[in-house]
Design goal:
The protein is an alpha/beta fold. 46% of the residues lie in helices and 15% in strands. The protein folds into 2 domains: 180 residues, Rossmann fold (3-Layer(aba) Sandwich), CATH 3.40.50.2000; 179 residues, Rossmann fold.
Length: 376
Amino acid sequence: MGAAPTARVVIAAAGTGGHIYPGLALAEALRAADPEVTVTFVGTRRGLEGDIMQREGYELDYVDMVPFAGANRYVLPGALLRASEQARRILRRRSADVAVGMGGYASAPLLIGARLARLPSLIHESGAIPGKANLVAARFTRQVATAFPSAAARFPGQRTVRVTGMPLAPEFATFDRDALRASAREQLGLPPDKFVLFVMGGSQGAARLSTAAIELGARWRDRDDLHILLKLGARAGAEVDEQIAQAGADKVVHRVAYLDRMDSAYAAADAALCRAGAGTVAELAVTGLPAVLVPYPFATGDHQRENAVELADAGAALIVPDADATADVLGPTYEAWAADPDELKQRSVAAACVGRPHAADELASWVLQLAGRRRG
């Protein structure tokens, strides 16, 4: 009797990092669960997936799909039909056993293609409010995984809906602040025993937070007990350095353009200031990092505010409107947290209580179960 054939999984993860990196985390969890599994991706030529998948060593097939927004509504039906047929052919060519959509505009064609090919499928919804593409995709599958409990009720009908959490990189599943903290601070050039605020600024809708970090640096420039780790996008450069210098905040604001390991920043920090993207909220919970969340005000359906609610309701985070993200508003909060280790600890425990560090493994188990049923 020959060995059982290995599972072949095709994942749609396209557009932004918010869809791509959870897809990669799922792929890694699938490989960890079954080293023989074959994982390939489906995307479009519009997003970041081309560069990222090549760097990560995964094969990527393309469909000609357009986003579910704006003037595209006039060409959307035709594009969806064309891309779904392309996806069906990709699934057949890849001898796929199961199709997985991670959200975004490549997911719906893959799920429709799976229905046409009579293959089992599953979608993962990362946000508290489902995106348009996933609401369409959900019509073509009976399996839905969500990152947030609040999203589960938004998928009615005869479906199996499980709250698995957000698939994160493997290092988050084994995150240990005490083990990482000293070396993380040393690597990042941070003082070993001072309060550190981690600010995720950058160019993707978070310039407001970079400005807030510089304002806080100016507020704390005569103190040596409060420090800021400011993460900026690759595009930010000399201009930010000049602003920090003008604010007299050179000794307070420690700027970094890129982080190889995000878990190092979370381990080094005592608190965070950030947007409320689904991935960020999940990472804050898993690492038990108290935060002030500033939802991006122009996010579709104000979904970032909904993402932030789970942490806020648990007592792990505060939600501050974008217009109020100033040093005058934020400063007293962080100063109070720095002066009260007990409150900081309580908020950290509250964050960890809603964390789902094994989300990728749970989702991978479900995907392999679907693949196994088909092969069985």
